[in-house]
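Batch manifest, entry 17 of 40.
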Amino acid sequence: MTKHELTQKLQKKCHLTRQESSEVVEIFFNEMNKAFVDGERIEIRGLCSFYIKNYKPYTGRNPKTGERVQISAKKLPFFKCGKDLKERVDYPAN
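Output type: structure tokens
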């Protein structure tokens, strides 16, 4: 599902205008982005959670040349599936 498809579904199910549904989706994603930047954990009960994982710097290797390369510390967002979602995916309703 794309962001546009989500906006369309929200528009139909909640009887909103295209502009209103687009604003709701934008607010949702903007607030998630702000939480990530602030290092916060995002939890949507029954669906999933997102969190930032910190990586320490390490020495890597360039796969083409074999040369050693210093990789700097970084932070990456991670997705963790919720129990309810896991069950729905594993045992879909007929």
